[in-house]
Each structure stands twice: as structure tokens, then as C-alpha cells.
Specification:
alpha/beta, 38% strand
Length: 300
Amino acid sequence: MPAAFKTVAVVGKSDATSLPDVLDQLVKTLRARGIKILMDPPTAGASRSQPDAVHEMTQLPAKADLAVVVGGDGTLIASARLMAEKGVPLVGVNLGRLGFLTDIPADGLEAAIASILEGDYIPEQRMLLAGAVRRGAQTLFSTLAMNDIVVSRGAMGSMIEFAVTVDGEFIYSLRADGLIVATPTGSTAYALSCGGPIIQPNVNALVMVPICPHTLSDRPLVLPSTSTVRVSLERDTHGPAHVVCDGEALARLGAGETVTISLATQTVTLLHPRDYNYYELLRSKLNWGRANRDRPTTRG
């Protein structure tokens, strides 16, 4: 069977001492199938096996048929936002901690990658958010997010107050440390730690989760994926709020400015091994049904 992918971009980022060994194994697996290997400069610097070409990350999507990300979920998310522009699918090899998205373990890399390269995989579409900060009709900043877009008080010591609308309809005035708007992918990230629900990836929905609200009745809200959420500061007495996309602070929100969040036209395609099971992933990563949850804890 001819290779389903002829040019593969390899992106690696991890503090793990095993990264060079994993990159060596990956390069060997790709070269055995005559596949052209591209890397970004940091990955090439960490690899003992040199690629066929080195390009800046922003150039890789236009040159690759597939991206293999070696690291953690954060590395895959950053890569996915770039690859989505050209529709390049991604495969994740986990060297991080949880690994909800980088679902191939390093010790199972060779067999899983070989199967995917031969066209034996489960493709999965993940939605992206489009976020923009606007002052009137002027767009000050725009971005894509795979997990979430957050309006946060940042380093300020007091809560912020802002108004939230959905599809032009006023929802509430919220006094809180912030507000998370997350995709189903992001429902197992920051939103989960703030009490939001887990949304299965193929459900067309968004979740809106207050961060430490002043009023306990301000609860997470699940919205249709077609919704447009707008967040604006009601008072700016303590300075601007921060707009954070996938964990990276990218803009500030001042008085008279609005964050608009909606579904992006681009999507991310993840390729999973044939034995991939989302619920098994949750059981494994969240320790559901494990005996050690029932063991008494000891306190010193």
C-alpha cells in the first residue's frame, strides 16, 4: 500500500530527557517508509537524527501532509492552531503528564505511527474558537483557540465586573475572577477545574464557565456551538482585564471594549490509533473507578 502521507512535520517540545530518543525512533519509523521529514528549528536542535529540511513553525503547514507532535497537550494545541489553516491533520505522542490529546504513549510509538502512515486510523474533527477584541467597529486583536478563551482579572487583586450576551441577548452581569468560554476539547482543561461539565468531543456545543463568581447561583452554561458570546467590562476602576487564549495572555480588555467569541470556520483533524477510546481515556486520565480512590488517606 502506498504511503498515505509523503511529507511529515515533526514538532517536539518537552523537558523529558527521553525526547531525543523518541525523536530518533520516530525518524527511523518515517525513514523506513521513504517519508520526507520536516522539523522546526528547536525540534531539529533536540534531535540527534537530522531531518530532510528545517523550517520555521509558521512555514510547516504549507509544506506537510501530516504533523506528528511529540510532547504534551499544550504543544499539540499550539501546533493545531497553525495546522488548521491548511487542513493538516495531527498525531500526538505523549511525553507530558495527562495527555488528553497526545494519546499515543512513547513506548507504543512505532506500531501506532506505522499503522497511521498506512492509512489505518480513526480521524476526528475538533472545533476551534475565533476570538476578537473590538472597540466599536475596530478590531484590535483576533485569534484562534482550541481549548478556551478566557476573560480574567489577571494579576489584579479584586474581582472584575462584566456583561455577557449570547447571540445579542443579555445573559447576566457577572462579578467574578473571570469567565471561560470553552470548546468540548477545552471542557477537560481550565473549565473542568472551575466546575464545568465534560463535553464529548463530537457534541456541537460550547460551555461558558464563571471563575470564582461572587454569586454562587452563577453556574456553567452549555450553549449551541453556533452561539456568539460577547463580554464587555461594566466598570474599569481596577484597570483592564486580560484576554487569555489556550493559556496564553494575548490582549487586554479595557472600558468600552468587547471580546467576541464564536465558532471558527477552521477545524482541527486529529488522527488516532484504531484502538482509541475516549471513555477509556477519561477513565485512565481522571482515575475513574480505580481502587486507590477508595483507600483512606493518611495525614502527617
